[in-house]
Every structure is written in structure tokens, then in C-alpha cells.
Amino acid sequence: MADHSAINPNAAGERDLPVRPSGWRVLVVESDSGDARVLTQGLRRHGHDVSLAKDGREALDAFGDAELVLIDLDLPDLDGLEVCRSIRAVCDTPLIVVTGRESELDRVLGLQAGADDYLVKPYGFRELMARIEAVMRRITPRNTSADVVAHGRLRIDITSRQVTLDGKDVQLTPKEFQLLHLLASQPGSVIPRQQIMVRIWGGSWSVRTLDTHVSSLRSKLGASESIITVRGVGFRLGHV
Questions:
Q1: Which domains does the chain have, with CATH numbers?
Q2: Residue-by-residue pLDDT tens, the chain, 240 positions
Q3: Which GO terms describe its cellular component (predicted)?
């Protein structure tokens, strides 16, 4: 029988944790049903939108929609370190390892595989929440102007999901909005095709799907040069 004491949500003071009014999309990668249940319930209680992957393959299919990944290294099909490397190879989504592997070498390997933090079981939920806040604070811009991305004549309001060009509304589908926001948030950078497809479509995508959305965006932005194709690599936002 599994030891479900790896996470202790009821340690002294745990119930006093503040609930975040607007949580993150968190992917929990955990094969132990008891640990997974306690962890997902605790995260949801604190305002986060949580999905669960029970093995490495499920994780690789699901991480594209996550803003944060919590991963145990002991998975039934793939080694958790390989899953971390695969995720880190295509995106910069924050990764926190939560595992029973406790040696110094294990910690070093986890961080080298791309983890942003490493937490050993058993641990208290308060510590986990503090580590999550610290990791997300490092990757989240501090000023509220980050809610609006401006590029030339283009303005993208992240909160209202409104896009304007020269002050006029541009009607986009949800996926078109995500694609445009991704490109505009990294101006001047070429974003690889695979990274775009994983970040926006997760495990369900095709090359044709991406090309169709790029073509539609170019049309709605009124110029073919609004999104530049870098052959053999990916796309970048052009002159708008």
C-alpha cells in the first residue's frame, strides 16, 4: 500500500494559507493515486486549475496547456528526468520536481534536466505553495502593463483578450489569439514550429493546422509580412 503521507496539507498553520483569487493552470504529473489526490485537491482549494497526468506519455501530451508543471520523477513508463528534458527542449514552462529521490546527485540531475525547483517528499503544503509562488514570481513580469502587449500599430489586451490594429477591433478565434500573443510576447525572436504547436495545441496538432492559423492571422492583420516565416525554423512577428 502506498504511503500517502508524502504531502501533509494539515501541518500546523496550513489552513491559514491565503487563497489566490486567480490561479494558474497546473499540470500534476504523479502516478501515486493518493499523492495525486491530496496534491490536486490542495491546489484547487487555493484557486488553481489543475489537470492530472498519471505517466510520462500523458504528461507530454498535456503540458502544452499548462502554466506550471509539478512532476514526480518515478513514473511507470518514462523516467521523469527524460520528461523534464523533453518539455524544456520545446518551451520554458516552469517545472517543479516533487519526488522521493533525495540524494544530492538526484537534485543536481533534476535541475540540469530543466527543473526550476526541486522538492523532496515528504513535504508540507505550505512549503510547496511558497516554492510555487517564488518560481512564478521569477517568470512573471511585476508591472501590470504586462497585461497589454503593444507592437507597432498592434495592441493585445491579455485580460480582455481584445486585439486592436490602429484602434480598430480585430476579431480572432481563441487559437489565433494565443498564437498572436505568443509571437508578440517575444518580438524579434524566431519561435520554432514545434514549440508553437506544443504550447498552443498540446498533443493534438499538425503542420497544416499551424500554417492555416498563420495564414488566417496574416489576412486579419492585413499584411503578409505581419508574420515572417523563417524556413526550416519557425515564425516571428513582422512589421505591423
A1: 25-139 (3.40.50.2300), 148-237 (1.10.10.10)
A2: 334 446 554 443 343 444 444 578 899 999 999 999 999 999 999 989 999 999 999 999 888 878 899 999 999 999 999 999 998 887 788 999 999 999 999 999 999 999 999 999 999 999 999 999 999 888 754 444 457 888 888 999 887 889 999 889 999 998 899 899 989 888 778 888 888 887 787 755 677 888 999 999 999 999 888 999 998 889 999 887
A3: cytosol; protein-DNA complex
- The pTM for the full model equals 0.60
DSSP label at residue 142: S
**CA–CA separation, 48 and 17 (whole Å):** 14
169: which residues sit within 8 A by CB, 6+ positions away? Answer: 162, 163
Q: How many residues does the chain have?
A: 240
